[in-house]
Model the fold of this input.
Amino acid sequence: MRILVVEDEVELASAIAVGLRREGYAVDVAHSVEEAVDRLLVTAYDLITLDLNLPDGDGLDLARRVRTDGDLAPVEGDQPPRILMVTARDEIGDRVLGLDEGADDYLVKPFAFSELSARVRSLMRRAAGRSGAVMEVGDIVLDTARFEATRRGRLLDLTAKEFALLRYFMTHPGEVLSQEHLLEHVWDENADPLTNTVRVTVGTLRRKLTRDDDPHPPIETIIGAGYRLNVPEPDHRDTGDG
Done:
């Protein structure tokens, strides 16, 4: 999942970014409205954490533009980004206005990073149409709160990037995801698009997921198109008495 942290306090922005990266998210940082707009014009983010008091404008105006300006719309086929406002404005009226202007959630400073992390997970689940921290696709189970993944009850030893990649696949089960799409949503702006980092990471994740008795690997390569996390066919065998 690709996150844009918009925060003018450099140390706070860095701390948020470091914490979210440790949880496997791809994170870019902007310290002003202008920087944020520059990034939003070229990248389809999944979520924005947005300060309201920015040096060159009001975060409310930016939130409004994200929701209404066609130039800042995500690429075709992607959902609009979730917006988590993170601000010192703590009056009820400020919260109501922020939510009315397009925020999906509102967090008042000062805050504990664990709460911000939980709110990010909640917004990501909401975007994927889920209600809990645990994701399941077939026999693969991902606990986003505990940062654990299992298959058939066996704990998988995943790196942060492999965990993030699996989480993204499980958010889009059965969909063919191109290398470019995965690079944009699972890696940050420092990733080199000319490297084979996506192919290598998908390969290591697939090996960790695959069992000796698998007729087909859970992650399939679609030649010329990308990769797909296969969704097991339901078992239609008759279990009745007749």
User: Anything to note?
Assistant: The first strand starts at residue 2 and ends at 6. The chain has a mean pLDDT of 85.
